Amino acid sequence: MGSDCLMVHSISSSILRNATRFSHHSVQGHYHGNFGIEWFGDVNQCRWSMSVGCLMDPESPAARYGRTQVFKVPILGCGLIVSDKGNTLILPDMHLPYQHKDSFDFILALRDYYEPRRVLCVGDIFDNHRPSYHEPEGDCLSEEDEYLLAKKNANELQDMFPKMVITRGNHDDLPIRKAKSANLPISMLSDMNSLYELGSGWSWVYEHYFDSWEGSPVLIPFHTNKRGRWTKSFTML
User: Which of 29, 79, 96, 77 is nearest to 224 (CA)?
Assistant: First the structure.
């Protein structure tokens, strides 16, 4: 079939508009309160668009500013494209090191259960709260502690998924954006894998076209109990 699906960090907040806008399917993150799939059909074909929520800890200091902006009510979960040719696991915005404390257990369980042939990520793997253009929270980690913990978390994630394509998000790009603000050339910065001491199996791009293998998109919500912990169960939507 060829490349019939586009993954980017952000297209628009309207999933239905995304479905109608392109002549292909699409996957996005960024809008933490958007967790859904919309379909659009015309005389030629049906197209779908999926928005995969996030796995950021909604109680973390880094999440406070977003409660009135990007995500008023964050929805936690992952995406999946189910195909006879192999499943594709779609990781949402992780925002390391401010991810939900059970998020790694959740995605590891998904990996073991669905046995994905490939793994993709919509971006914002890193949060970079301290160097953000927003006012940082006083009780968040220091710049150095945040970086060191995010690096540790990223290496744990790469142990789970040695090969992955990531569409860079606005939070991932904060070092680049800050360098530009300081009139520094981007060539002075390390690439993402070097910066976080990762192996070469992760590819960082701004958009990724891939073959959906004629698969069906589904969402897997991150079910929590009254204490906000993962219930260790998952279902497809």
Answer: 77
pLDDT over 90 (residue 237)? no
Taking the model in full, what pTM does it have?
0.93
Q: Residue range 170-177: average pLDDT?
A: 89
Distance CA(111)–CA(109), nearest Å, equals 5
Q: 């990781």: which residue's tokens?
A: 91
Cα separation, 211 vs 203, whole angstroms: 17
H/E stretch holding 131 reads none
24 within 8 A of 11, measured Cβ to Cβ: no
- The contacts of residue 51 (CB under 8 Å, 6+ apart) are 15, 18, 27, 28, 29, 31, 34, 35, 36, 37
**93 CB-near residues (< 8 Å, 6+ apart):** 29, 30, 32, 53, 54, 55, 56, 122, 123, 124, 125, 169, 171
Q: Which two tokens stand for residue 222?
A: 């991150």
Q: Are strands 77-82 and 216-221 parallel, antiparallel or unpaired?
A: antiparallel
